[in-house]
Structures are given as C-alpha cells and as structure tokens.
Amino acid sequence: MTRAPHVLIIDNSVDHQVYRPVEHWTRHLQVPWSTVRPLIGDWKSPLWEATHVIITGSEASICGNEPWIEQACERVRILAQRNVPILASCFGHQMVARALFGRQQVRPTPTPEFGWIDLKLSPQARTDSVFGGFEPELSLYSAHFDEVHPLPEGWIRLASSTKCENAVVRVPNRPVWGIQHHPEIGVKEGQRLLDDFLVRYPAKAQLIQDNLQSASRDSQITGQLVSRFLAVVG
C-alpha cells in the first residue's frame, strides 16, 4: 500500500533573519510536512517516517568541519540507502555528494555564481522523471561558493551552467536529485538575499559583486518540480 505523502525538510539554514528556506519550499507543498534543523541538533521530527525529503541550502560551507554537518550527512546517507526520494538544493546538493561519496567530491568553487543563472539541460534530462519535459534552458537563482566536483562515478549529469558543470545531477538507481541552484527562490526574494549577503558578509562582498549575474530571469519551475518529485515512489 502506498503511503500518503509526508515531506521532511532538512533545514540547513544558519540565520533565519537572513535565510528561511522552509518558507520558500512549503509554499509549493500541498501535502503534510515537518522539519528538522541540524545546526541546533533538532532531529525530533519523524525522520524515518517521511515519504520524501527536501534538503535545503545553507550559509555554511559544505567543506567545513562542524560536527552538525557530518551528523546531517550520516542521516542523509541512511535516507538514501532506504531509497527515500530526496530533492536537494545548493548546500543540500553538495551534502548528498559528501554523504554518499565523501568530502573529496566537494570543493570551494573557482567560479562562484550569484543572481539568476542560465542552465542547459543535458540529453539525459529528457527522459528523467523529474526534469524531463522542462524547457532545454532554465534560469534559476544561485548563491554558492562551493560545488560538487568531480561528478561522483556513475552519477547522471542533468544540467550544467557555464560556471558549474554539475548543476543538476541524479544519483543512479536511487530517487535522489541534486540541484546546485535555487528553484524555490523567486526574483524579489533573491534580490533581498543578495542585498543582505552584501551587508552581512562584507569580506565576501567584492567576490559576490564580481560574479553577479545582473539580469533577473526566473523560470518559475518550482511548482512543477515539486509535483513531479512527490509523484516519485521510493
């Protein structure tokens, strides 16, 4: 018997005054959901009862040594081994690679991306159960200093940008997708986040400005993306 969907959101945010990813994702959810927050050790929600998992971005670096990151990786590893469908964005995308293949699969990127980035879908995306049917080129919000590199052996590359080769990936033989960018963040939210980052992280302000894509083009795929993801059965 197929269980009714219940989405678990692994909220990797650091400062909710700056970044509130649960708000961004849940506006697109029409099914019950719960959340955990690794940074503060909050794993009280029914982790193993979730039918689907969304793993969010973070202001933290996936290359860090903080214990909460490794603890979260351990749980993500178990969820993937249990074949629970996972949709992971930005830091979450990197977390999946680190959880399943180790820290050698993630690195500080030499080509950060900020603003709305153009992605080109690969031929493999055409038959993918989540990304198949989208336009061959998408524009999504981005804010990342790290990336998945190299692509883990056997993983399927579904999309790339000019600065991020492994922009969208699929884990083979498992219902797990990673997206380096942020389909859940719209133009107004993205601009507010960029403004906040420039103020709160002055040491990185020049790097952000040097790598900022000024045109705001959002493909608004989140509703379809979430709907297709929830149709996946683990």
Description of the molecule:
This protein is α/β, with parallel strands linked by helices and 234 residues long. The protein has one domain (7-230): Class I glutamine amidotransferase (GATase) domain (Rossmann fold, 3-Layer(aba) Sandwich). Helix content is 26%, strand content 25%. The chain has helices spanning 21-26, 67-81, 91-101, 187-200, 205-210, 222-230, and strands at 7-10, 33-36, 52-55, 86-89, 106-121, 137-148, 156-160, 168-171, 176-179, 212-213. Strands 1, 2, 3, 4, 5, 6, 7, 8, 9 and 10 form a ten-stranded mixed β-sheet that branches. A hairpin with a 7-residue loop joins β7 (156-160) and β8 (168-171).
Number of discrete domains:
1
Structural class: alpha/beta
Q: Mean pLDDT, rounded to whole units?
A: 95
**Runs with pLDDT <50, length 5+?**
none
Calculate Rg over CA atoms: 16 Å
Helicity range: 25-40%
Overall geometry: globular
**Based on DSSP secondary structure assignment, what is the total number of beta strands?**
10
The fold-level CATH name is Rossmann fold
Query: Any idea what the CATH architecture is?
Result: 3-Layer(aba) Sandwich
DSSP helix count? 6
- Give a short account of the largest sheet: 10 strands, mixed
* Fourth-level CATH superfamily: Class I glutamine amidotransferase (GATase) domain
Broad CATH class: Alpha Beta
Query: N-to-C SSE series?
Result: EHEEHEHEEEEEHHEH
Distance between the termini: 12 Å
Strand content: 25-35%
